[in-house]
Amino acid sequence: MPRFVAFLRAINVGGGRTVKMDLLRQFFESLDFSEVETFIATGNVVFKTRTKDSKTLERKIEKRLRERLGYEVAVFIRTGAELIEIATYKPFRESKMDAFTACNIVFLADVLDQKLTQEVLALKSGTDEFRVYDRQIYWLRRRSQGMPFSTVRLEKTLGRPFTVRACNTIERIVAKYYAAD
To answer: pTM of the prediction?
Structure first.
């Protein structure tokens, strides 16, 4: 049975969207998924199912979460093979990485077209740099003088749901669940 990871948007980031991880695990088990685990409390759910179509799984989980929680939760599912590729892809030169940078991965439902890809790349600034690869955007964020992490410009440009995870979170998921694959 294939193992998937569901990345849920805006879970446990404030605004009344707090969901306890044991309840989230029970919810996924109620959908007949097996070996359900959550990975840190930010809406990362690892599970197995006979269903192999990620889009079908995303729609099913989103519908049931809306019914259960009373609000929309965008879901972005990746397979083990996809996550291994995402974790090993290195869009930025190692020399750009230091103690003042953070690498994030923006998960999208679909691949961006060329026009939107160019608009994302044009968001490059003194603190932010982007690379688009498949259904992900890699975001290199340079921290400076207490500037908070913000997705506002990216949200306006994309005009569609997405969720963000730290690169090291994805690497840790791959190490824990897919190291033997």
So the answer is: 0.92
